[in-house]
Specification:
The structure holds two protein chains of two kinds.
Chain A: E1 7-12, H1 21-32, E2 38-43, E3 79-83, H2 84-89, E4 101-104, E5 110-113, E6 115-118, H3 120-128, E7 132-135
Parallel strand pairs in A: 1-2, 1-7, 2-3, 3-6
Antiparallel strand pairs in A: 4-5
Chain B: E1 2-5, E2 8-11, H1 26-35, H2 42-58, H3 64-75, H4 82-88, H5 95-100
Antiparallel strand pairs in B: 1-2
């Protein structure tokens, strides 16, 4: 089977809890990662809250699935774009986000940053370059 | 459904996975293995322990491909291949080993 590799971008625009979108998106990404495509994720609008560090869901009695984002590197999902304007509008900086890394097998498992903060303009360019865009 | 472990009844779903992850104890894996006609060796326990640690850290059961790579890194290259893992868990390192470890079925496993 020789199928062309396609570029998939998953847009995450909603807060992590309250709706099922964030978790569903993450599950689809993990399942889709088995198909060896070029996968990247983008976090914008309230979606930036999905990867904020120190999440505690005890009071709302929901599973805190934020640790699962750290597994994305194992699934070869290494490009996580975060929109700069969305962070700023919410008074957040990259220091408020989880320190998500991936290990480069070809460089003796060197740890590399997965998160890249991009401007709204850059994100639009990234979206243009995709074959498939899913919005959650 | 349920399994009997040390005189206790532990609830499982229709596919044999534990309903409540916190019910797990070593006896669970031993009873499940016996039902599958498997004798658990240290090599099996290495994988079961690894899966439980992975779940503890990431809150998911890893896909087989991810498990294979991670085992190779942690336990040595000669163990990081599907032949070795299927040799230990003939019904699949994802499905069977996760069941023994008390984890849910791996995400993406049908």
């Amino acid at each position: 089977m020789s199928e062309a590799i396609k570029k998939f971008l998953y847009l995450n625009r909603r807060a992590p809890y309250g709706t099922i979108y964030a978790w569903e998106s993450l599950e689809v990404v993990l399942i889709g990662a088995a198909f060896d495509q070029d996968v990247s994720l983008a976090f914008l609008d309230d979606g930036v809250y999905q990867i904020v560090k120190g999440q505690d869901t005890a009071a709302i009695e929901m599973k805190n699935f934020s640790p699962t984002y750290a597994a994305l590197g194992d699934y070869d999902v290494t490009k996580l774009y975060v929109e700069k304007e969305s962070l700023e509008e919410r008074g957040l900086t990259i220091d408020d986000l989880m320190d998500l890394k991936w290990e480069d097998e070809d460089e003796d498992w060197a740890e590399k940053d997965s998160i890249k903060v991009v401007s709204r303009f850059e994100l639009a360019r990234i979206m243009e370059g995709q074959d498939v865009v899913f919005s959650f | 459904m349920a399994i009997e472990v040390n005189g206790k009844s532990i609830e499982t779903d229709e596919e044999g996975y534990l309903t409540n992850l916190n019910d797990w104890e070593k006896g669970v894996a031993e009873i499940m293995a016996k039902e599958d006609d498997l004798e658990l060796t240290d090599e099996h326990w290495d994988i079961i322990t690894f899966l439980r640690e992975y779940y503890e850290e990431y809150q998911i059961a890893p896909a087989v491909r991810v498990l294979t790579k991670a085992v190779g890194k942690k336990l040595g290259k000669e163990k990081g291949n599907s032949k070795y893992l299927y040799g230990l868990f003939p019904y699949g390192p994802g499905k069977q080993a996760c069941r023994f470890a008390g984890l849910p079925k791996p995400t993406g496993c049908i």
